[in-house]
Design brief:
The chain has 381 residues and is of the alpha/beta class. 50% of the residues lie in helices and 11% in strands. The radius of gyration is 20 Å and the shape is globular.
């Protein structure tokens, strides 16, 4: 994985601006991108926290006309995207601003596909399906989890089937990711917990994926180095701005690791639980991650990486990493077993069938088919 002779394409398409109070720079950055009429895509919670008003003020001070679409739902569907497209067209938007968690950012990216290329989200399911340039997009995360702010993928669920569609295209990446740790201070504790678990899972999965290379490896390890000590700090002291900043940077670095590699079995297992059993995505991946790490450790390359990451975490052996992950999950107060989340045991076979169809399953370092995925569910149940 670290052989410098290995073929590599490095695409850092997104300019990252990290600074406490960075939201105040939004108007100037929008003007740099040629924006004159911005649509801010967000959700009711972010708007209620006052972040939408501050974003609007920063844009209007710079002479940018602003409209808002503040109706994004968690795990956005094609319905969310369609409503966002209508709002953008009504405003005549020439710039999109995603303000919120991964759901808001993905909705903005999904709308950008349709605004500029027409069609439906299903038309862009896969890689590189957009033929036309997209509107400039500024991503402003208010959570430290998905890393969507530096990725070129929109993850949108079909409103009818609940199938998650990963729509990836270089043109969909944000021009600028604006990281302001102050924006994460208003997160409810459960959001801090679930998004932090998601970020940790991204770092650990990308560190061992089959698609890994030395660039994704560096981003994954740097993400883990920041996230591991910062996560318990933000859980215990939500006002710790320094720890919030480390979480934001760690989540973004893990997002860049995904952008240059891929995820694995943990996310394949988590997605059906979110779609059919109501588990929050970050909780689902955090619950399953220790079992997948134990499973993958049978592969020598993954075992070597886990050994290094265990040392980063202050552990003496890779065998201690799964238990340390369970301890991190326990700190959140979230349920530790699937049975405690209301997942019926009789649902596991069908969930395993669906998990095997998830795109990320093929990139896991140890091959997974339905029997292996069912055993992982059983272990986590």
């Amino acid at each position: 994985m670290n052989d410098p002779r290995q073929p590599l394409e490095l695409h850092l398409r997104t300019r990252l601006v990290f600074e406490r109070g960075a939201l105040l720079r939004l108007g100037g950055l929008a003007r740099e991108l040629g924006g004159r009429r911005a649509l801010v895509v967000t959700d009711h919670g972010v708007a209620a926290a006052g972040h939408l008003d501050r974003a609007r003020s920063a844009l209007e001070t710079a002479g940018v006309a602003v409209a808002a679409f503040a109706a994004v739902h968690e795990n956005p569907t094609t319905d969310d995207v369609d409503a966002c497209v209508a709002a953008a067209r009504a405003h005549g938007a020439d710039l999109l601003v995603g303000l919120g968690g991964g759901s808001a950012l993905d909705t903005a990216k999904g709308a950008n596909f349709l605004l500029t290329n027409g069609g439906q989200m299903r038309d862009f399911w896969g890689v590189g399906k957009a033929s036309q340039p997209m509107l400039p997009f500024i991503a402003i995360p208010t959570t430290a989890g998905t890393g969507s702010e530096v990725q070129s993928a929109a993850l949108i669920a079909d409103a009818a089937t609940h199938q998650k569609m990963a729509c990836l295209d270089p043109k969909a990446a944000a021009r600028i990711a604006l990281l302001d740790p102050d924006l994460t201070l208003t997160q409810p504790p459960r959001v801090t917990a679930s998004t932090g678990l998601d970020a940790l899972a991204h770092a650990l999965e990308t560190a061992v994926t089959r698609e890994g290379n030395w660039i994704s490896d560096w981003f994954a390890r740097e993400a883990f180095r920041r996230l591991w000590p910062a996560f318990p700090r933000v859980l215990a002291a939500p006002g710790d701005v320094a720890a919030r900043g480390e979480m934001l940077l760690g989540a973004a670095f893990a997002g860049w690791a995904i952008e240059h590699s891929m995820l694995g079995a943990t996310h394949s297992l988590a997605n059906p639980l979110t779609a059919h059993c109501g588990l929050v995505h970050g909780h689902a991946v955090g619950l399953l991650l220790p079992f997948v790490v134990e499973f993958n450790a049978e592969v020598e390359s993954a075992a070597q990486t886990y050994t290094h990451l265990a040392q980063v975490a202050g552990l003496t052996a890779k065998e201690l990493l799964p238990e340390a992950l369970r301890e991190r999950l326990a700190l959140t107060g979230l349920a530790l077993r699937l049975r405690d989340c209301g997942v019926p045991r009789e649902a596991l076979p069908a969930l395993a069938e669906e998990a095997a169809r998830q795109w990320t399953a093929q990139f896991n370092p140890r091959p997974v088919t339905v029997p292996e995925l069912r055993r992982l569910y059983e272990a986590a149940w």
